[in-house]
Write a structure and sequence with these properties.
Distance between the termini: 35 Å
Order of helices and strands: HHHHH
Helix content: over 70%
Oligomer: single chain
Number of strands: 0
Radius of gyration: 18 Å
C-alpha cells in the first residue's frame, strides 16, 4: 500500500524547512563570528539577504496557506508565531543588516570602543531574536 501524502503535508514540510533555513544560523552566530572580523560581518549581511529574507518569506507564504486551508486563523498558535515572524523579518532588514554593515566598517577601522559597544548591542538583540524563534516553535508545536 502506498502511503498518501497530502499537499498540505508537503507545505508543512516546506514551512518547517524554511524556518530552519531562515533562523537556524542565528543560534550559531555568537559561536562562529569572531569579534573584529569585518569579513564575518559582511558574510552575515549576505546571508541575511540571500537566505534569511527569502526563506522567511517562503515560511510566511507557506504559513498563510496552511492557516487558510484549515481555517486556523483564530488559533493563538498561529497568531503568535505570525507576529513573531513579521517582527523577525522586520528586524533583519531594519536592524541587523545595517548594524552588521556598520560593524564591518568599524572592524576595518580597528574595532575600537564604538565597535565593542555596537557588537554588544547586536549580540543582545540577536539573543532576544533567537528567544523569539524558540517561543514561536513552542507555540507551533504545543499549540496552547
Amino acid at each position: 500500500m502506498v502511503p498518501a501524502i497530502l499537499f498540505y503535508d508537503v507545505v508543512v514540510s516546506v514551512h518547517v524547512m524554511a524556518i530552519v533555513a531562515a533562523f537556524g544560523t542565528w543560534f550559531a552566530y555568537p559561536l562562529v563570528v569572531p569579534r573584529g572580523d569585518a569579513s564575518a560581518h559582511r558574510a552575515q549581511v549576505r546571508l541575511s539577504r540571500a537566505v534569511v529574507n527569502p526563506a522567511g518569506t517562503l515560511a510566511l507564504i507557506a504559513g498563510i496557506y496552511l492557516a487558510s486551508d484549515r481555517h486556523y486563523w483564530d488559533e493563538s498558535w498561529v497568531g503568535v508565531p505570525l507576529v513573531i515572524l513579521i517582527v523577525l523579518m522586520g528586524i533583519t532588514g531594519a536592524y541587523f543588516i545595517p548594524r552588521q554593515k556598520r560593524l564591518a566598517e568599524l572592524a576595518d577601522a580597528g574595532a575600537g570602543p564604538e565597535y565593542v559597544a555596537l557588537a554588544g548591542q547586536v549580540r543582545t538583540v540577536a539573543l532576544v531574536a533567537a528567544a523569539l524563534v524558540l517561543v514561536a516553535i513552542f507555540f507551533m508545536v504545543a499549540k496552547p
